[in-house]
Amino acid sequence: MFKITRRGLAAATALAAAPLLSARAQGPAQWPTRALRLVCAFAAGGNTDFVARIIAERLTADLGQPVVVENRIGAGGMIGAEAVARSTPDGYTLFLGSLSTQSIHVSLYEGRLPYNPVADFTPVSRTTVGTHMLIIHPSIPAKTVPELIAYARSRPGELAYGSGGNGTSTHICGEMLRQLGGVDLLHVPFRSTAPASTALIAGQIQIMFDTFSSALPHARQGRATGLAVTSAQRQSAAPEMPTMAETLPGFEADTWDGVFGPAGLPSQVVERVDVAVQKALADPALVSRLNSIGLQPYPAGPAAFAAFQKVEIEKWGRVVRAANIKPD
Question: What is the CA radius of gyration of the chain?
Answer without folding.
Answer: 23
